[in-house]
Amino acid sequence: MAYRIGFSQCSMDGPWRKAMLAGMQRELSFHSEVELRVTDAHDNSQRQQQQIRELLREGVDLLIVSPYESEPVTPAVEQAMRQGIPVVLVDRRTGSPEYTAYVGGSNKAVGEMAASYADRLLGHQGRIIEILGTPGSSATSDRHQGFTEGLRAYPGLQVVGQVTGNWQEKTLKPALATALQQHPDVSLIFAHNDAMGRGAFEVCQQLGLAKQIRIIGVDGLYGKGEGIDLVQRGVLDASLLYSPGGEDAMRTALKILRNRPFKRENLLGSIVIDSTNVETMQQQTDKIVSQQQDVERQQGLLQSLRATYASQQTILYGLLFALLGALVLGMMAWLSARKNRHINHQLALQNAANDKINRQLVSQNEEIRQQRNQLEALAEQARADTEAKLRFFTNFSHELRTPLTLIQGPVEELLTSSPDLSTMQRQDLTLVRRNTQRLLQLVNQLLDFRKIEVGKMAVRATEGNLVSFVREIVDAFEKPAQLRGVELRFLAAEPVLMAWFDVNILDKVFFNLLSNALKFTPDHGQITISLQPLNEGRSLQVSVADTGPGISSQDQAHIFEWFYQGEQAAAAKGSGMGLALALGLVRLHQGQLAVSSQLGLGSTFVVTLPRELPEELCSVALPAAKLHAFEETEMLDADLVPATTQALPESTSQLLVLVIEDNAEVNEFVARKLRPHFRVHAATDGHTGLRLATDLIPDLIVCDVMMPGLSGLELVAQLRQDWRSSHIPVVLLTARNAPEQQVEGVQAGADLYLTKPFNPTFLLESVRTLLANRAHQRERFRREMSTETATVVATDPDQKFLADLTAIVEANYTRSNLSVEDVARSLGISRMQLYRKVKAVLGTGVTDFIQNLRLTKARELLLDESLTIADVAYELGFSSPSYFSTSFKARYQLAPSEFRTLHITPHY
């Protein structure tokens, strides 16, 4: 049965709209009985409404509408429904629920996905510019809303500017260039489509910011200059697939026309296309295009066969008429009958061929759909595998660092503060410390492995003398080599060989190679380290040769694989990470690591490095960080530690320290070290710790970074936002030392970071230093409050608290019965909280503070000759003029009358 479908498109401009129409036409290539009538409204709602009504007058069996604006086309769609014509809406809805089916993606979900991917791409911290589509467009508003709501889950990401691009790359360029010049620290641009993302990349290139700024686009279309191609060429870091939905809309329309079951709401999914899956997407799309071309060629052959069939039918009819006129001619009738049988045989063969071609087309179409589903499943599985790998390494690292803290802390304290240890005890403790440090080195190697795997290990090269750098590493192995009689030789072709290299990366590489060489070289053997230029001085080669047992050819094929140990003696077995880590670091440094070895003749490892590195890998020396250390943070198992609060015995000190740590043993260890010097309270989860901090107002807080319910960084941020606790110094205990985590900690408001395992003595001295600094700050506030005026400028939370407190007291000057409870109630806190806050900020009591404000105001009022001293006393809430005079004289060593005489010039 033949059908006629009308398609009202809001606009044919732009590759995404063209892709929608192309998808419909691809689906219709399997249904020759369907005619598609297409109209283009050129982004004009009035014109689109008229075109829909024209399609209805021409007579269509079904109407597909992609609205430009929802409300203006609603009456025309409702008219079609009243006439019994089904309506399929694509991409955008109308303002009425009267439609047959809807096919399209969720622009809001795309915006939320962009926010999530931006957080993962920037490592939880960055500044963003958003490039919007046409103002008023539902796609623009929904994508912006989704992106804004998605960013609320990532407080480290901040949108600092917006540029309107109207879906075109040329429109946005002047405004984007201005925005980037105003915000040079922008690290990511989110463009509402790939064309604007391409324009943003060109602007970044002109400003020299292309390597600094990441760009995310939307559409993910196939073709030259479109999303997949832009990601593949590195123009975009990612493109969010927003399917045009042409095929799905046409399939839904055909189900409706043929009275088959269909879904009224068809929401199309979206995926992130980035460097991890763009090659797969490209290959799958190429294959789909190739198969589509095969389908079109076969359809062309089918059309040719049908034309032949129609031509032969005409011949057949002519022969039949000829037979009627040739009844009198027997021979002509016999020949005609014979020819007729031959034509029928050909027609039967052609019908069989047509059936075979149709079956092949159906099979190939099903194969294409299965491959698309497999591609989506593979992409989802890859994301799940990556997340599982990251969780494994982070949890494993933290599980090791926590017990290392409880081992290394007491050991360090015993070694440094126990002079009565015997020689044997000191040797044993030194052995424990050395092996604890070795465990910590293995943890760091695991973290380096994780960073390499996910591309987070950055090269920061500086220019230096590679000869002196390698010599220093060799010197560190001189003593252990002498103890075993191993000859350590260092040969350099020249005394100075300058190159650009990352000290931290190459230190790990050469340390691993020399450690392996010393481990496998027998006593009285020889290790030779040589350094020489290659390729006419463009490269440098460092080789480490030993006289060990050598490596078999079977092991040589696998020694650079992670955790491979080979067929070596049990005493020589290691973690299987050293060589794999060295290879990954050398490649990251754009170099090569190779091995040559023969059994019984030793091994030689050769590192080849370029002397010059790309500009983006070179940097100046990094400034000293505010934080002591900050390594990778991982989540402990919350079920292992009950979330309870322990009240520990208080010392004679008036200073209160709150310890918040989810590991019970670490919690007790820290509290035990601080208890002889301070009063200590403890909590084992973030929410309990936050409640205690605001209830008790401690003098200092020691807190772990990751805890059940509320992390240390989130806790610090909330403390800094609340004026009750904004003044409290915070020391964070952590297992992270990555630079990006240091920045995150500074922004959260931490005063100091200590890396697990930490030195207990250093922790105690750090606490004392922070409390001393707090005392200096308290003295500054007291000097500010003792000025001629009681007004306080609210420039930070502590000063805002003082401003609010001062305003409440000033508003109640006349109340002689104004109490501390009244002031606390006005501020919405308890009497104890108010007392501890004032004591912490000013070092004085609340009553003294109120009295000082009144006496400061009294000096101002005494200068007004129209007021008597009694008027001033009652104006300021003193119960009697005598009490006012006594208080004033105690403060200023002058009676009120003497003060007035001294400061008011007599009138003559």
UniProtKB/TrEMBL annotation:
Where do the HTH araC/xylS-type domain residues begin and end? 803-902
Superkingdom classification of source = Bacteria
- Catalytic activity, per the record? ATP + protein L-histidine = ADP + protein N-phospho-L-histidine
All residue ranges annotated as the Response regulatory domain in the record:
656-771
Its Enzyme Commission number(s) read 2.7.13.3
- Indicate the enzyme's highest-level EC class: transferase
Coiled coil regions in record = 354-388
Q: Which SMART domains match?
A: HATPase_c, HisKA, HTH_ARAC, REC
What Pfam families does this protein map onto?
HATPase_c, HisKA, HTH_18, Peripla_BP_4, Response_reg
Q: List every position bearing 4-aspartylphosphate.
A: D704
Domain annotation Histidine kinase: ranges: 395-613
UniProt keywords (A-Z) are: Coiled coil, DNA-binding, Membrane, Phosphoprotein, Transcription, Transcription regulation, Transmembrane, Transmembrane helix
Q: Which sequence ranges are marked TM in the entry? A: 315-335
Q: Which PANTHER family match?
A: HYBRID SIGNAL TRANSDUCTION HISTIDINE KINASE C, TWO-COMPONENT HISTIDINE KINASE
Name of this chain's protein: histidine kinase
**Organism of origin:** Hymenobacter tibetensis
Species lineage: Bacteria, Pseudomonadati, Bacteroidota, Cytophagia, Cytophagales
